[in-house]
Hints:
Largest sheet: 5 strands, antiparallel
Helix content: under 10%
Strand content: 35-45%
Order of helices and strands: HEEEEEEEEEHEEE
Mean pLDDT: 78
Oligomer: single chain
Amino acid sequence: MCSSDLSSFAMAGLTDxxxxxxxGLTDxxxxxxxxxxxxxxxxVNLGQVQVTIRYSQPRGKLVVVVHKCVNLVGYDEDNxxxxxxxxxxxxGKDKKKTQVVKNELNPVFDETFDWSVSMQExxxxxIALSVKNKNSMFSKxxxxxxxxxxxxxxxxxxQAHTEWFNLEEPE
Length: 171
């Protein structure tokens, strides 16, 4: 994907900004979301997730493919993470998740998920993608790595959209 595709997608406001973060534009016009942490005001990029979203008319299903994440932050003791992606079709509680990729900050998932909803209903919904770090219950490592909510009303679901989404700090 070229940066102009990402630029038009991000600038069109296809992501909801219901979580804390600071947005800005890069020199190429691509919207960049970063989260400010610490009192020094230093900014940290939480990484990105690539997904494809489309509606399959023959199957009557909303289809989401989680391709990969890049530039994730390492939260485990070895400065790596064991990431997976959790998807929720909002409003609702139907949760789906990818497999865990161990010790990786640029995991490739290439997993497909679908929901049996009409095209009309799908266009009134959103998808919440949460990138999480799988750790043992005794671990002190951070579990939530980043989140993005995609408003499906702003997409032409008849067409497949493969896009990169910047992760934001979870609430």
